[in-house]
Amino acid sequence: MKTVTKVGLIVSLSMIVAGISLCVIPVAMSGGNMVDFFNDKREKRDVSVDKPYKYVTVNAPMDNVELDFSVNNNESYVELYDSDRYKFDVYVDDETLYIGMEEQNMSITGFINGGISPRKITVHLVGGEYKLVNVNTGIGSLDIKGNMYIEELHVNTGIGDVDISKDTLLGKVYIKTGIGSVTLPKASDAVQINTGIGNVHTPAIKDKSGSVNIDTGIGSVNVH
Question: Taken in order 211, 142, 177, 5, is the CA torsion positive or negative?
Fold first, then answer.
């Protein structure tokens, strides 16, 4: 077995052990039991977005995220899942659509007890053109679908893949994953992708600024 492969396996196993520890210890400290811990009761909630926005920020500690634009979308709304101890805020301020956890749910015990089962946050977009999209997930993937233009995209996932459809036009792209692969279409401006463990798939990049940086700790880079 190659040294690089051994290192990769050791790192992966270490992260799995650490993840299990982070789940079990807070439950034990809070007096909870593992049955309640894994029976995450979260209910679906749809939130209408009436105000216009050009910026999107999503902070989702343990949820998959999908940004969906369709010409058939005649209203913007967000599909998400809440529990008693894990609720999301959704609002528009200064042309920014913000989706994230409420302040009182930010404790480690409340976050893990309420968020153990990943769900999907689906953002139904209208307009088709956005200046800045910023998505952060702890454990969760990101999918961007539809014929839209994003001038600047920032993505950070702890564990989760990033998949962007070929119909989506991108300007500047900054993507970082701890463990997760990245698939994206051709970007028109600066591109920076870093994966700890994960592959990168992208067509040939025509770059205006001359700044292209793709780096993987363990993983391949497939430019086609």
Answer: negative
Q: What percent of the chain has pLDDT over 90?
A: 44
Q: Which residues contact 36 (CB under 8 A, 6 or more apart)?
A: 113
Distance CA 169, CA 110 (A): 38
Instruction: Let me know if 159 is exposed, middle or buried by CB neighbors in 10 A (0-12, 13-18, 19+).
Output: buried
Q: How far is CA 196 from CA 7, 14, 161, 219, in A?
A: 12, 14, 12, 8
* Cα gap 188→182, rounded to integer Å: 17
H-helix or E-strand spanning residue 36: helix 34-38
Domains of the chain: 42-223 (2.160.20)
Q: Considering the entire predicted model, what is its pTM?
A: 0.77
How many of the other CB atoms lie within 10 Å of CB of 41? 11
Q: Mind listing the pLDDT tens digit for each residue in 28-37?
A: 444 444 444 4
Question: Residues 6 or more apart from 54 whose CB is under 8 A from it?
Answer: 95, 96, 127, 129, 130, 131, 132
